[in-house]
Amino acid sequence: MQASNNENPRTHCLVCGFDFQEIILPEDDCPCCGMHMGFYWENCHKSSFIEARQEWIEDRNAQWDVGEMQPADWSVDKAWAQVRANVPKKFQ
Ligand SMILES: [Zn+2]
Question: Counting Cβ atoms within 10 Å, is residue 20 exposed (0-12), middle (13-18) or buried (19+)?
Fold first, then answer.
């Protein structure tokens, strides 16, 4: 499968703002919000990101998908702060 974000590689999850610290591949899963990155590229409608983010933060209390990577002092407020800091405005 062709990566659909080749022209605009990203290092941050567009749903939760997690910093992968390397170019994200479509087959990656986000360790923070748990989203499969292949579904969440530039060509997705903004509402897809908003819905996925709300589900993660409101329904799952912003718990990390990979629990051992979750900071000890993690909170819903920190999740929102990460989104605001790292997700481009057009996907917020
Ligand atoms: Zn994420």
Answer: middle
Domain extents in the chain? 8-92
Cα-to-centroid distance, 77 and ligand 1 (Å): 15
pLDDT of residue 7: 61
∠ Cα 61 62 66 (to 5°): 120
Report yes or no: 50 and 37 within 8 Å, Cβ to Cβ: no
36-77: per-residue pLDDT in tens? 988 777 778 899 999 999 999 999 999 999 999 999 999 999
Q: Which phi and psi (to 5°) does residue 74 adopt?
A: -65, 145
In angstroms, what is the span from residue 18 Cα to ligand 1's centroid?
5
The CA 73 to ligand 1 mean position distance, Å, reads: 18
The H or E element spanning position 5 is none
